[in-house]
Amino acid sequence: DQQVKQNSPSLSVQEGRISILNCDYTNSMFDYFLWYKKYPAEGPTFLISISSIKDKNEDGRFTVFLNKSAKHLSLHIVPSQPGDSAVYFCAASQFSSNTGKLIFGQGTTLQVKP
Amino acid sequence: DVKVTQSSRYLVKRTGEKVFLECVQDMDHENMFWYRQDPGLGLRLIYFSYDVKMKEKGDIPEGYSVSREKKERFSLILESASTNQTSMYLCASSTWDRGLVETQYFGPGTRLLVL
Questions:
Q1: What is the CA radius of gyration of chain B?
Q2: Which of A69, A92, B22, B111 sees the fewest Cβ atoms within 10 Å?
Q3: What residues 6-25 of chain A have any CB closer than 8 A to a CB of chain B?
Q4: Is the per-residue pLDDT at B40 higher than 90?
């Protein structure tokens, strides 16, 4: 049972435009969400996170939106740059479980064309 | 900066061999994790550990074991490698910060090919 889903395997956008990556989850107990970015032959690196007490978190060109009622989060990148081309994973955790475990989605490959 | 290192970037092994993947972190993190990454499946948790000599099964522990004899080192062992264990293996570490879930920091990964 895939608790965190990224239904778009790939996304292609033009440089300078907005990239929107989506993520859905099924477990209503999840209360902390993260986005990771992964280049080929490298480990994932943390990008941005959001707690369930918020509906938006912004860091420079990156903004994460959380819609708890829809169990949906999205990552917006504005403006998109060629260096943003990578695989993006969303992840979720349940603070009350006290495990530190993250549940990852399948990933979305973003290509930003110059 | 947190540094997580993995002993090998690329590894080729034969079916039936015993394989050791080593991971070391230098930030005194309590938690360490082993994942495998496969196309279309994302990152799947194999095993994790909260402390020395402690281990917990993740979502796909079958065919794997782990060892944590020192806080900074977490080893993944494939007792008898099989071709379906060909994958990218990623190690991560994290710490507790005032009881909050902390970000996981990943190593560069080991790409294992089992022939």
A1: 14
A2: A69
A3: 6, 9
A4: no
Distance CA A99, CA B61 (A): 17
Do B88 and B20 contact (CB within 8 A), yes or no?
A: no
Give how far B44 is from chain A: nearest CA, Å. 7
Structure tokens that stand for B59 in this block: 């979502």
Out of A4, A34, A107, the one facing B103 most closely (by C-beta) is A34
Least Cα distance to A44 among A31, A34, A53 occurs for A34
Per-residue tokens: A13: 């956008």
Per the prediction, chain A carries an average pLDDT of 93
Alpha-carbon distance of B50 to B55, in angstroms, equals: 7
Residue B33: pLDDT over 70: yes
In percent, the amount of chain A with pLDDT more than 70 equals: 96
Rounded to 5°, angle at Cα B31 from B25 and B36:
80
Q: A40 at the B interface (CB within 8 A)?
A: no
Q: What is the DSSP string of A49-104?
A: EEETT-SEEEETTEEEEEETTTTEEEEEESS--GGG-EEEEEEEE-GGG-S---EE
Chains A, B: CB pairs < 8 Å: 58
Long-range contacts (CB closer than 8 Å, 24 or more residues apart) made by A99-103: A99/B48, A99/B56, A100/B31, A100/B48, A100/B50, A100/B94, A100/B96, A100/B101, A100/B102, A100/B104, A101/B33, A101/B45, A101/B48, A101/B58, A102/A34, A102/B45, A102/B104, A103/A3, A103/A4, A103/A25, A103/A27, A103/A30
